[in-house]
Amino acid sequence: MRHLLSTRSLDRDAAVRLLDIAEDMADTQTREVRKLPTLRGKTVVNLFFEDSTRTRMSFEAAAKRLSADVINFSAKGSSVSKGESLKDTAQTLQAIGADAVVIRHSASGAPQTLADSGWIQAGVLNAGDGTHEHPTQALLDAFTMRRRRHGAASRGRDLDGFRVTIVGDVLHSRVARSNVWLLSTLGAEVTLVGPPTLMPLGTAAWPATIGYDLDAAVDAGPDALMMLRIQAERMNDAYFPNAREYSRLWGLDDRRLSRLPGRSIVMHPGPMNRGLEISARAADDPRSSVLEQVANGVSVRMAALYLLLSGAGEDPTS
Amino acid sequence: MTTRAFLITGARLADGRTTDIRIEAGRVTELGAGLDARGAETIDASGLIALPGLVDLHTHLREPGYEQSETVLTGTRAAAAGGFTTVFAMANTSPVADTAGVVEQELALGEAAGYARVQPIGAVTVGLQGERLAELGAMARSRAAVRVFSDDGFCVSDSRLMRRALEYVKTVDGVIAQHAQDPALTVGAQMNEGTVSAELGLTGWPAVAEESIIARDVLLAEHVGARLHVCHLSTAGSVEVLRWAKARGAQVTAEVTPHHLLLTEELVRGYDPRYKVNPPLRRQEDVDALRLAVADGTIDIVATDHAPHPVEAKECEWPAAANGMVGLESALSVVQATLVDPGHVGWSDVARILSEAPARIGRITGQGEPIAVGSTAEITLYDPSPVRPFGTDRLRGQAVNSPFIGTELPGRVVWTFHDGYPTLADGELREPDDIAAELVRA
Amino acid sequence: MAARTVLHEADISRALTRIAHEIIESNRGPDGLILVGIPTRGRYLAERLREQISRISGTEVPVGTLDVTLYRDDLGRQPVRSPQPTQMPGDVVDGATVVLVDDVLFSGRTIRAALDALGDHGRPRAVRLAVLVDRGHRELPIRPDFVGKNLPSAQSERINVRVTEVDGVDEVSIEDRA
């Protein structure tokens, strides 16, 4: 795998392979010595143009457990905030000798621009770009679902027939986009629920069902219910009247939680707004996989870094 | 004007007749077969089409203020290379062309360069701010004799201000060229709103933001009895609105760009900022509707919206990149590929939509005249036969932000005559010193 | 390009039986032994050694599999390999005598990686190496303790070990790739 820019470009076999390798990585994390020598001598740069302590920590842990050297490059306080271009930054990283660049950027498409530019030879791993994609988040979500369903027998399996409902601000959500593509590739049935103002126009071709009624979605008994974070600034831009109404119509409150089947998983990419899109009780319920998702994130990112950095050039099988 | 004489032999006119053309002292002096070459330089034009010099109603020359992108000299060299003899220069320079002083400077820069006529467009509002009318009368009465006014880049979105502008320019037979874009519906917009924007996570620029402004403007123009010109129309819905307005008898004209006739939003998928433009590339359905609208006359002209940018404005993340594409050098080839070759229009229509109609809308004389005895010697000789890769070697301005690099396009401009002298000779741009010599000779 | 079979099913069976005897003998009995196979085929050879040792001594020794992919030093020289599962018997590595089992010993690099991998699971008292075929061409100072057959080979030759569990047949053959 030369780059990991989106889940849309992953086929089923490539996705299952990555999840299987993540299982192997997860196995190594239960041992006394959790560090592997696999990527010794490789340099991974975390290039974060947008603050995200959680994602950066997860990638940093993943890279370090594979013995890669990690350089954290935060745009805040660096020359980037003084107007340095992506090109100059990329060329600097090339000169430093980066083997992989994990990039988080507020601009949709920035990782692809970096990958296609020729400014840098390193593999590019998208850690979230604008409102486009966040592939490792979707992979860790799929990994979490697969483990909950198949347990120790997860290897080699997909999510055939698994029903996932994603709720909230789909319009601005890179997590939702990456999940729609990946989950449908893995055979899951995806439903998107939220206010019409926060659904993108032009989803007719998406492999997902669109709905606006969360109660109906809960009563349909999904295998996983994924609540998306709602950004405070959306309230000031006429997407919905106020937080109270949003929470009443599209929040996972205690009443809806009680109607959710016992086998359902409650998911959230974090960070959560407790009391807004998800109640405290729902967040802490045994059905919630929020902390599992965080732990699984490290394994999935180890797998992604391994696939990006361990091969000799282009791998014909991925 | 020059004292040189030329005999162009065996050219095919837009109407299909083959003829020799004698040019002398800046005018066409003779037409017919087997003309005498006495005292004239002979140019063999067999196989070439002779069009009246092309007129672009929508060019960004960037000078004054943004000379790192383009200057009047480099922009008019690009024009000559593309077969244009007149360019209307948009007002979004720095300072903005909103006073008589700036438009006269623009005019003078064009005259000094000598590659094409530069006809300044005046801003509708002071500083393109959309708040107060610029000195439209002063610009109209200046040496630049401005007749086209536009805030292009921005929409005159305030209905009352738009109405006033339309009314005000009636006194000089002027026209408001509107960049139709409802700003409230396009905050942060990055590309056409639809299936592709949904997938790419780029903020959408909905077709309705263009169509609703055009609908309002044609009603305003009709109401006050003024002339409206719609810039770079880009959607099938806009075509419908325009067709309806023309049927009602509104004094409205419209342009489409070459890129909107050829390219679609699918190109945005790679996030290559070369394809970032405003209004954005639309769907194939829109492209098809635009071509048919040119064919049936609903759209009056093709105009380039030539928008040069320095390399760094396009070598970046998509949302950070500048809008715009250069188009002067490729316009005629794209028109051939999208309108002539598929059979939508003939060469006489090309003469109309790329020369005669834009000159008429812009109210200039001595340009856009059919080639006839006594007409000004503004002539473009075009070879429609070769299909070739379009490379940066074809770009003769300062910028390289063409969306057509790497594609195959038909045709090649071989000669451009402006004011009786060649600016492009046998496919080669003439040097500034040679052009200066022509100006002295006059 | 003809492949020449050098060990048939019966030869392999005899070799494994002999190795099982040697392991027990050198360890002075089966106590404290762990057999660890290296995927893919070493894992099945380890399983067969377990059966032989059980038959000979009446003792069931623990068996594990140890994937070494993540410990290899040649990852950047070939296409990406998918790791295979590692299943080590719980809490018995410390102080045990671990016998690593692999099909072919060649450069020694796989065994070096296995020693590193093993170290992450505990601290054995001793580590031994059993291989079905030793074909020479060592690049590291590594030597097998138990060998089914020494097969001196040219670099250009390829040694194919097939086991019933994976390939449907027990057989070792030599193929010339030149």
TrEMBL record, chain A:
One of its GO terms (cellular component) is cytosol. Pathway: Pyrimidine metabolism; UMP biosynthesis via de novo pathway; (S)-dihydroorotate from bicarbonate: step 2/3. GO terms for molecular function: amino acid binding; aspartate carbamoyltransferase activity. It is an enzyme of class 2 (transferase). Its EC number is 2.1.3.2. Residues 161-308 form the Aspartate/ornithine carbamoyltransferase Asp/Orn-binding domain. Signal peptide: none annotated. One of its GO terms (biological process) is amino acid metabolic process. Residues 2-146 form the Aspartate/ornithine carbamoyltransferase carbamoyl-P binding domain. L-aspartate binds at residues 82, 174, 229. Carbamoyl phosphate binds at residues 54-55, 104, 134, 137, 270-271. It catalyses: carbamoyl phosphate + L-aspartate = N-carbamoyl-L-aspartate + phosphate + H(+). Keywords: Pyrimidine biosynthesis, Transferase. Heterododecamer (2C3:3R2) of six catalytic PyrB chains organized as two trimers (C3), and six regulatory PyrI chains organized as three dimers (R2). Catalyzes the condensation of carbamoyl phosphate and aspartate to form carbamoyl aspartate and inorganic phosphate, the committed step in the de novo pyrimidine nucleotide biosynthesis pathway. Belongs to the aspartate/ornithine carbamoyltransferase superfamily. ATCase family. This is Aspartate carbamoyltransferase. It comes from Mycetocola reblochoni.
UniProtKB/TrEMBL annotation, chain B:
Its cofactor is Zn(2+). Keywords: Hydrolase, Metal-binding, Pyrimidine biosynthesis, Zinc. GO terms for cellular component: cytoplasm. SUPFAM superfamilies: Composite domain of metallo-dependent hydrolases (SSF51338), Metallo-dependent hydrolases (SSF51556). One of its GO terms (biological process) is purine nucleobase catabolic process. InterPro entries: DHOase, DHOase/Allantoinase_Hydrolase, DHOase_cat, Dihydroorotase_CS, Metal-dep_hydrolase_composite, Metal_Hydrolase. It is an enzyme of class 3 (hydrolase). Zn(2+) 2 binds at residues 152, 179, 232. One of its GO terms (molecular function) is zinc ion binding. Zn(2+) 1 binds at residues 58, 60, 152, 305. Binds 2 Zn(2+) ions per subunit. HAMAP family: PyrC_classI_B. Catalyzes the reversible cyclization of carbamoyl aspartate to dihydroorotate. Belongs to the metallo-dependent hydrolases superfamily. DHOase family. Class I DHOase subfamily. PANTHER family: ALLANTOINASE. This is Dihydroorotase. It comes from Mycetocola reblochoni.
UniProtKB/TrEMBL annotation, chain C:
Its EC number is 2.4.2.9. Also displays a weak uracil phosphoribosyltransferase activity which is not physiologically significant. Regulates the transcription of the pyrimidine nucleotide (pyr) operon in response to exogenous pyrimidines. HAMAP family: PyrR. Keywords: Glycosyltransferase, Transcription, Transcription regulation, Transferase. One of its GO terms (biological process) is regulation of DNA-templated transcription. CDD domains: PRTases_typeI. This is Bifunctional protein PyrR. A motif (PRPP-binding) lies at residues 98-110. The keyword Glycosyltransferase applies. It comes from Mycetocola reblochoni. GO terms for molecular function: uracil phosphoribosyltransferase activity.
